[in-house]
Amino acid sequence: MTMNQSIARLNTSDANFQTQLQQLLAFEESSDHDIHQRVIDIIANVRNNGDQAVLDYTNQFDQCSFTKPSEMELSQAQLKAAWDSLPQDKAEALEFAANRVRVYAEKQKMQSWQYTEADGTVLGQKVTPLDRAGLYVPGGKAAYPSSVLMNAIPAKVAGVRELIMVVPTPHGHTNELVLAAAYLAGVDRAFAIGGAQAVAALAFGTETIPAVEKIVGPGNIYVATAKKLVFGQVGIDMIAGPSEILIICDGKTNPDWIAMDLFSQAEHDEDAQAILLSDDADFLEEVANSIARLLPEMERAEIIKASLSGRGALIKVASLEEAAAVANTIAPEHLELSVEDPEKLCTHIRNAGAIFMGRYTAEVLGDYCAGPNHVLPTSGTARFSSPLGVYDFQKRSSLIFCSAEGANTLGKTASILARGESLTAHARSAEYRLK
Amino acid sequence: MTMNQSIARLNTSDANFQTQLQQLLAFEESSDHDIHQRVIDIIANVRNNGDQAVLDYTNQFDQCSFTKPSEMELSQAQLKAAWDSLPQDKAEALEFAANRVRVYAEKQKMQSWQYTEADGTVLGQKVTPLDRAGLYVPGGKAAYPSSVLMNAIPAKVAGVRELIMVVPTPHGHTNELVLAAAYLAGVDRAFAIGGAQAVAALAFGTETIPAVEKIVGPGNIYVATAKKLVFGQVGIDMIAGPSEILIICDGKTNPDWIAMDLFSQAEHDEDAQAILLSDDADFLEEVANSIARLLPEMERAEIIKASLSGRGALIKVASLEEAAAVANTIAPEHLELSVEDPEKLCTHIRNAGAIFMGRYTAEVLGDYCAGPNHVLPTSGTARFSSPLGVYDFQKRSSLIFCSAEGANTLGKTASILARGESLTAHARSAEYRLK
Question: How much of chain B is helix, strand and coil, in % rounded to 5?
């Protein structure tokens, strides 16, 4: 099999297209009973024994050698030193990205509102930031400074009083890029811990590590399992699945560009999903040829190849409108509209995490510095959820302030409905306020 | 023990107050391994066998006698007939409530926005409604028409194309008030099914029941377990805990009013939590006396008594500001500020589902018809979550439309950062668009 054949070809005109599409999209997250039980035990231990449990797990799992809990904290001086020692081009690039992410995030900030009715009753909604938020940053190869910015900046823009980062430091090695990004983003405190023990510490607090209201950020299966288990005690962001890109192209973009855009998601990992839709059958073959030609040049060729052959597809559609319908079914994390009139096509799109419009808008610009968040709903969850944003670090409280007149009017209705539901204390509570 | 002593008394000046408070608030939801496994089986069966599984479970668990799947649907004509046969006072009260809920909900509707940068690059956020939403309505005594309005109206205001209600009809008996409220609220389709099988049907779809994007509404332990298990496949609202009210009073409200406000939550169920904070010790005793005097008159006296003695408290605080701090720790579902200057006190409140301001604003007005939603975060989750609202039936997609100039500027930064993260396909995808 040559590379030319190593990506699936589908056609919406095939009778069994929907079945093929569902098979292509199917991805069941592994759920391991042993891991589940181990994470339950870790959480219970941290909850009961606090610092000592976190310290023991960290020394054991991360091969650290902490002797007392305070040593787990990374000082602001350490974060600043990491920032100060960054090469200038990297520092400037991170600053440029951080500024753009901040400007965009500011537009998302929810504001309180209220209105007064004719009888003087005031109704409204009060918006407040979370008190504290926790940001999980993975150790090792998946530790991206861009992710630190994307998770931390919205929290700070929301006005979260204290933003606490946890990042494992295997064998005591810190990731200087991550610490520098944390400094730039305004992380308030940082701890050199990771895994389920870090999630448990943030959820319940220890003598040293403050409890937070919400935990965000990506992690491995232990971290994801721990986040699910502490949900309710604290808020969590989404549980991220593999990266996805869906490109709709009218056949007039350079096929090498499109091939590289597919690669840019495929290189994340073997489970990543890169799909191209076009109404131009010849163009699909041109892209297949670009893939075959460019793949050998890529540093992560093996990962890309596995991703494209396992979960990728080139799909012939009858029209761009039909492509939009397929996109709405898939509800991709990233959607590129590489077409002549992307704004028109965009009106047909309902389900997508982020929409990249026009031939110049490579998806990767959104990964780093365009401004919108790169933490996006995956695995079709864009059907009902949204990119990470400032709003995830704010909450709303309803406000009701009845005038005497308002309480009289509302009380009469409340009394009728409460008695209809046989809730007579409800009814009498309202009736006391009648004139 | 007389009734006068049957509610706990705490004082913030006691050395062990924080411990006592945490004990008072502690509530672990029961998690039953057998139920968990049974629900997993039900979901798998519905997923594999569709209509037939739903029909079999419904006949078995709800003692229905459906012979074919189409019989499970409640027609629009049935809903309309229920509405048409409502007594006039109830119909008017429901209409009054629905209108107020709708007016308030309209203010919550999120709008799309975008802005254009100097180089022509456009950034924005597109807001769209969910395609379909599912509303679970319990059968039996917990089936409240007010809940139908509170869950359905925000979905319709959001623009959800199809709102599907499920409500069990044990022995084939429909709840006419619920059907009438569904008609009023604009429910599009309704099915006489319930339990985990109804949640599974809504999450995965069957031949007869359409799959939805999000499932909202309260239910028993089977329903709550099923909602948790299908989360990810669909969105869900919160998992509701017992009702809660926290009242802060300066001692100048009629103590009978305050006692009845406490009763109004306590009558929901034995696990409900009703707490009063006051800086006036004498007033706390007056309320205790009102409780003792009024309790024997109440239809649900046994439930109220169990709730107040098991989970209620009268708490003496040093000041109203201290009361606000305690409220922020508790993060109650409902918070009454029954004080002279509630707006001033409200500035100190950060964590509460809904805030009822002033002596006239009985919490029950919010349960039925004030306008704000009565589906609110419980069990301290107001620290990080919000009332149910229109925004729960909308989602956001990020928009990025780069000009050639913009792609050039952003691409340079993206390239530096991508190469810093060793993601060279990312870098090359950006570099293709450089001038």
Answer: 50, 15, 35
